[in-house]
Design goal:
With 116 residues, this protein is of the alpha+beta class. It has one domain: Histidine-containing Protein, Chain: A (2-Layer Sandwich), CATH 3.30.1340. The protein is built from three helices and three strands; from the N terminus they run αββαβα. It has a three-stranded mixed β-sheet with strand order 1-2-3. About 4% of the residues have low confidence.
């Protein structure tokens, strides 16, 4: 019985060490590639599946990160669903769809108060 639990424990430890090694290799690939150097990408590996997350500037950077990760030996699958891009540039926030209508309504209601 103790032998069985030790084997189960050692297999779990082997998987954890293998995942840590894959995470290290992916981090190295992303760090040394000029196109992804310095990008805020978080990496987690579970049973050979690498999960990439972070917020990047362009879709091309996301594609490059996934491509580099795919090239790492030992990667079984890639989950890049949490790898996002900025959808706007600072200072150009879109207005609410009814922003003009709301302003007009506010202006009309204030003139009615003044008229009274």
């Amino acid at each position: 019985m103790k032998l069985h639990s030790f084997q189960h424990y050692s297999q779990g430890l082997e998987t954890i060490m293998h995942d840590a090694w894959i995470t290290t290799k992916v981090r190295s690939a992303l760090t040394f590639a000029e196109s992804t150097r310095g990008l805020p990408i978080h990496i987690k590996t579970h049973a050979g599946t690498v999960a990439l997350s972070g917020r990047l500037a362009t879709h091309k950077q996301c594609e490059q990160a996934v491509s580099l990760t795919r090239g790492v030996h030992g990667v079984v699958d890639i989950d890049a669903s949490d790898l996002q891009t900025h959808m706007f540039t600072p200072g150009s926030l879109p207005e609410a769809p009814n922003a003009e209508e709301d302003r007009e309504y506010g202006a009309q209601s204030s003139t009615k108060k003044d008229d009274q």
